[in-house]
Amino acid sequence: MASPKRHRKYSSNFNATARQAAQMLLLKPTMWRLLKVHVHGQSNLDGLEGACVVFANHASHLDTPLIYGALPRRISKFLAAGAAQDYWYDKWWKSGPMTLFFNGYPIDRGRDDGSRKQNVRGLSGALLDEGIPLLIFPEGSRSRTGAMGPFKHGVASLCISRKVPAVPVALIGAHAAWPSSQSGLPKGRPTVHVVIGRPMTPRPGEIAHEFSERMRRQVLELHDTTARAYGARTLDEYARAVALEAARRTELSGADRTDSHTQEDR
């Protein structure tokens, strides 16, 4: 576990003031100008104080700034965003904005690619122990298809071991606004919705994979209920499209093998 001295930057009032100024003067106005943002459920966080883990579906690079802009300032002030060490912390020009805007800290995704510069295991738990709320995407990486991937159990395990609530957030329209295949910024001010659910706490005796699945279902419900209400694409629809595409590729592959055997028989 890292030493407390290393954590002071995450709870520094000076850093938090500078970060909130950057968010309110630059980041949020930019996001809200690029997108038509609708925030739902802020009242669900009334009375929430101290350490917690905010979690959401991960659809695009818009997700983190949207969540920071949507959360009440008392929560976003010290909120520390976990970011993949192998992606965000391999270059200063990527790690710098993570620190400036999001109080970012590195998360080890377990990829042994030589990119690790420091041992960051246990940092999430240590920050929670010091009362710092976290933002973590349990899928581990952005969706390339719009469908929500399975949740890794680490977030649920953190909440159980540290006895902190998990705050579900659903992001609707973020993938359509800026899919991973699109190189440029969103155009035409596409509509996105940020839906904040009620904080969740582990039930007595609930283990990590059970709580993680309940968390995943909650994000799915928040997302699809809102998507249907506003005529947006649901996560179920994205998942069906992925399944249909996989079936089509399997069918084409089978047809190719059949053609190959037919030609050989000739």
UniProtKB/TrEMBL annotation:
The biological processes this protein is annotated with in GO are:
phosphatidic acid biosynthetic process
Q: Which SUPFAM superfamilies match?
A: Glycerol-3-phosphate (1)-acyltransferase
Identify the keywords attached in UniProt to this record, alphabetized.
Acyltransferase, Transferase
Pfam families tied to this protein: Acyltransferase
Q: Where is coiled-coil annotated? A: none
Location of the Phospholipid/glycerol acyltransferase domain: 52-174
Q: Does the keyword Secreted apply?
A: no
Q: Name one GO molecular function term.
A: 1-acylglycerol-3-phosphate O-acyltransferase activity
Read off the InterPro entries from this record.
Answer: Plipid/glycerol_acylTrfase
Q: What is this protein called?
A: 1-acyl-sn-glycerol-3-phosphate acyltransferase
Q: Does the keyword Cell membrane apply?
A: no
